[in-house]
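Open question from group meeting: does this chain pack into something compact, or does most of it stay loose? Before anyone orders reagents, we agreed to write out a predicted structure and look at it together. Recording both the input and the output here so the notebook holds the full record.
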Amino acid sequence: MLPGGHWAVDAVRRTALVGLAPAEFAWGDGTLTQAAVGWALLRANARARDAASPLRAAIDAEWRRFAREFPSVAERLTRDAEEDEKESSRYGSVPAAVAITAGYATAEGRLLPVRSLDRTRENVSSPEQLDDVGQAQLEARVSTLLGRYAAAELAGGRIEADWQIADWHALGTVGPVGGWVGKVAPDFGPGTGGGLILDGRASFAGGGLMLVRPVRAPWIFRYLGFIRAEALLSRIDSSAATEHPWVFASRLSLSPHPRLLVGATQAFMFSGEGLPPFTWRNFKEMFLTHGIKVTGEEYENGLASIEARWRPPIPHVPTVLYVEWGADDNHSAWFKFPALVAGIAVPSVPGIPALSVGLERTSFSRPCTGCDGCACEYYATWYRHYVFMDGWTLDRRLIGHPLGGDGSEWLLHGRFDDAARRFRFDGRTFTRRRGRYNLFAPDREGRSVGGHIAASYRVTSAFELRASGELERGAGDWTASSANVGLRWVP
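Structure tokens returned:
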């Protein structure tokens, strides 16, 4: 499985958005494997040449880069595609794919969110300021095929001044179904600035099931189009005074038409020490009814969102419209206290095909603070709960959107990605307004502006220079910033 921010994931999703990926790839949402990405890039490369696409040189370079970074996967893909033996054998069959990244990182103004000290909203510690850092970083990522139906990956090194394992997993497949164990960071949702439920920053240790390639249901259900699905189960350290709660997350998407995708994401934090246990009855009732109806007390916090993405048939200008609409822990919250991510993107600008641009708006409704019958002032507050008082966090880091559950954001983003010239640049600028109920209040309230830039240049096919920086400045005279420079080497 490839990390959500991997260059190949971005590359193959661009081919899907401009209509060059095969229909069986659908939209390429959710978690993708090396095989799925390589297969779609290989087919998109052929289609781009046949269609004389303006992106044909870039996609050809992306496929060649993929084949160099993952030679065993590329060799099998070309062999399975019944290409000639010469084409297949030129990639070789290296038993492992290796990437090593070394660099230097700084961070200032980092903040951990509020924390309840005793499962109450009254006895709460303020957001915690972290020390500024400036340190060398080193990461080695190794992946290997284990026969035809299994694979494994391990990434670790010196991260945040400590030697540690960043993520790892072992994946086995039977037909289109894959099962994995390890530590991974799921990335669900269409938003560029972050998803409402899971935004790809938090790594969960556990296991899960997934469709490693989209499938079509039989009979009349074929009209649902290509289906992707995945689910994970993890046990985390704690959420405030609740020790070792469980987290379950799942995602389902359908593509009934090549230009349309509809999807749904759901996640629960539940059980833990001192709460009703994790049993099959309690687990299933989280989906069928409210869990309190069978246990007599609160033991779960559920978040859910639905989304739609559409590529309107606009001549010569590939365009994507998308929306994600979510609710936290209450059925009526879908309409009274929703969160919304909506945007428009052009994945390939006419005349400058390597350039993509987009505009996105995110908003979280304020909780109910003055109605009759509300449980408390924080009724229907995003990312907070009566039991899991650390909110929607993992190791006190946000799992969901960086707004923290209250406020709004306008985000303008662009990317110039020309693999043929070995250059890539990402730029984002945003304005945010955080409300008093966000997880960083009261330290981070009100308006702020900021941006993010990242650039990379492949000096040779083996070495890539990288640099990135981010800055956010708030109305309360606070500043958060980070910077990173490094060199990536693919032996």
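Observations to bring back to the group:
DSSP finds eight helices and 26 strands in the chain.
The mean pLDDT is 89.
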